Amino acid sequence: MAPTKKKCSYEWKDLYANDYGLKVVARNATTSRVETVSCRFCIAFGREESIDACDGAAKEEKSDNNDIGLPINTNNVDAINEVVDGGDNKRKRRNHIANHKQWTGPKFCTDYFTKHLQQQHAKRWEEYNQFKQSYIQELEKLRQTFNEMALQERN
């Protein structure tokens, strides 16, 4: 039996915006339901530069210069088209994607958000999750402190 494609049946939840760094860009005029969301990571930072854009190798942080010493502009579609690969060998390189990833509802699949973030914004997505976790821990400590202060006031 052939594997069936996963159907996503998640209604939009406002917590997705913070959990996955998304921005609501379109709502239905009559029902106010979310119709389209966009990736805030794409909007703010563009997509991370790949080691080898031609064959889709793993992402890696790169310096401000590429292998031929020219600056990389990650938000520009007119990025470098040819990369020198030793001597006279040249290989074509895909243009860097400048548009922002968007998803259209009415149903949204969180797996698609996660997949995009892990593949296109791996480093920043990891930093964002670490920040969220530490922020949650700090909020929990603050709430615990307030609860203790409230108990002391009652006594």
Tally of DSSP β-strands: 7
Provide the residue-averaged pLDDT. 74
Largest sheet: 3 strands, antiparallel
Gyration radius, rounded: 22 Å
Output the number of helix runs.
Answer: 4
The helix-strand sequence is: EHEEHEEEEHH
Strand content: 15-25%
Query: Taking strands numbered 1, 2, ... along the chain, how are they ordered across the largest sheet?
Result: 2-3-6
The chain-level structural class is: alpha+beta
Q: Low-confidence segments, ≥5 residues, pLDDT <50?
A: 51-86
CA(first)-CA(last) distance: 67 Å
Shape: extended
What's the helical proportion of residues?
25-40%
What does the model show?
The protein has a three-stranded antiparallel beta sheet with strand order 2-3-6. Strands 1-7 form a two-stranded antiparallel sheet. The relative contact order is 0.17. The radius of gyration is 22 Å and the shape is extended. It is 36% helix and 16% strand. The chain has a domain at 49-99. α3 crosses α4. It has helices at residues 15-20, 40-45, 110-120, 122-154, and strands spanning 10-11, 22-27, 34-39, 82-84, 90-92, 102-104, 107-108. By secondary structure, it is of the alpha+beta class. It has four helices and seven strands; from the N terminus they run βαββαββββαα. A hairpin with a 6-residue loop joins β2 and β3 (34-39).
